[in-house]
Amino acid sequence: MSEGVARGTAASESCCCCFMMDAADNGSALNGAEMPPNPSVSVPQPQPDPQPQPEDKACPGEETWKNTRCGRSSKKGAETSPPTSEKQESVSLKNQDQMSPKRREQAEKSPRKCKTHRKVGHRHAHFLHGPSPDTHFGPKASILQNSTSIMHIQDPTSQRLTWDKPPTNVLVIKKVKDEALLEPFKELCTFLIEEKHLVVFVEKKVVDDAALAKDAKFEPIRQQLSPFREGYDELSGCIDLIICLGGDGTLLYASSLFQTSVPPVMAFHLGSLGFLTPFKFESYRKEVTNVIEGDARIILRSRLKVKVVKELKTAEVERQYQAQDNGLVPQSHIDNEAGKVFMQVLHVLNEVVVDRGPSSYLSNVDLYLDGRLITSVQGDGVIVSTPTGSTAYAAAAGASMMHPNVPAIMITPICPHSLSFRPIVVPAGMELKIMLSPDTRNAAWVSFDGRRRQEIQHTDSITVTTSCYPVPSICCYDLVYDWFESLAECLHWNVRKKQSRFEEITDSSDTEC
């Protein structure tokens, strides 16, 4: 561990953050991966006297959204009088009579709260009514209770950031080789160190930048920065908040630095596209202060857990894998008896791409879903992406664009030699295995979020499933408005010249053929 990382770790205790989530009326769930306990993420327990939450930030067009989305439900609520206590008691008793003995026992132990007991400032989603895992179907059928195969989904609109302790260590990621970002970088670091009294971690090559070292006025701040080196310094246990300055690549790079639990990420749009960077740098003081005080919404961007298994054919290749501690296969585990090397498990945010590489032949790749062969891809390759990655390479290959909160895995072929091969979506948590077909003419290449590109041979395999460690991305307004704003501003989604109306319709024009 470098001196900067050690100094930042000893400066203060590690801060934990959690995401305050208000569950919907009807608990929604779906089949997926088991979610292990995460020490940095928790759901706060309700307090006897809850304090009012800060007022939600109004996003542009919110009044129009409320009027068009919630108009009928508000009108209905105004016309219908609330039920009396006697009616509520009778309805409750009726529901308990229809419950099974096991459901009745669970309901008595953990009674549900009514809507009036929700915390102030938490807006409920009217569209979140998914199937419950303990729903009965008819008089005798129900879903088998299996906690290892059920993944509960919280109300996405009520995911808010809260700190168990005030944050002390901040990681600032700056887009490299961009001199236009030097001034914003210096302003942000000065603000965080002098005004907020935080420990700022910066990549070592950014601290050693010659253009940054020439600034004598910034030199006292530069000496207080804590440098780190990718692949050598572990940041998982000492970073409380990540701030990105640049484009979407800075957020992907931040995700690659944390292969387990990821701190909250705040991304400022200072790059070219900026689909994943909703914040404007002009108001960085106000926005950063709000996040440090816990006034922010969170969107959980799911990642893919990828494992590559390769076969060792010679002792020379084996020594090569063992020597690459900071290369394509860091911390790999070698099984000499089986003759295979188990690569380090990677967690990617956008996609895993398997392509034909420099070969002119078609790639022939077999896809297995939960151990069963589902199809073979004959074309330039295949893309396995998250909902976040559906607007990246997958969108260019003809896939649909999915909201990041949708729990799914997208499989998109790259230029398939078939007219009927369309992109498909499978539930999150399913295990996808990719192998070269035995009769393929050439090898293939694989990359993870555009990095760590390596060759895949016939005996190698790639296993992909949903990661249990998402990327908590901080929203500028909320997770719905931010996504549609990015679609409109960055991808110009559904941009078309408006059709003009008829000036005047005459009787003769209606009857003419």
Structural class call reads alpha+beta
Count of helical regions: 15
Q: In one word, what is the shape?
A: globular
DSSP, total strands? 27
State the end-to-end CA separation: 82 Å
Major sheet characteristics: 8 strands, antiparallel
**Fraction of residues in helix:** 10-25%
Indicate the proportion of strand residues. 15-25%
* Arithmetic mean of pLDDT: 75
User: Which runs of at least 5 residues are low in confidence (pLDDT < 50)?
Assistant: 10-14, 21-55, 61-91, 110-131, 321-331
Task: Provide the gyration radius in Å.
Answer: 26 Å
Give a summary of the structure in a few sentences.
The protein has 513 residues and is α+β, with helices and mostly antiparallel strands.
Protein described:
It is a single chain. By secondary structure, this protein is of the alpha+beta class. Helices cover 25% and strands 25% of the residues. The chain is globular.
Structural features:
single chain, 513 residues, alpha+beta, 6-stranded antiparallel β-sheet, 15 helices
Indicate the topology.
Elements: H1 3-11, E1 17-20, E2 28-31, H2 62-69, H3 71-79, H4 85-98, H5 101-109, E3 136-137, E4 141-142, E5 150-153, E6 160-163, E7 169-174, H6 182-195, E8 199-203, H7 204-207, H8 210-213, H9 219-224, E9 226-228, E10 241-246, H10 248-257, E11 265-269, H11 284-292, E12 298-301, E13 304-311, H12 315-323, E14 333-335, E15 340-342, E16 346-348, E17 351-355, E18 363-369, E19 372-379, E20 381-385, H13 393-396, E21 408-414, E22 424-427, E23 432-436, E24 444-448, E25 451-456, E26 461-466, E27 471-474, H14 479-490, H15 507-511
Parallel strand pairs: 7-8, 7-10, 8-9, 10-11
Antiparallel strand pairs: 1-6, 2-5, 3-4, 12-27, 13-15, 13-16, 13-26, 14-15, 17-20, 17-24, 18-19, 18-23, 20-21, 21-22, 23-26, 24-25
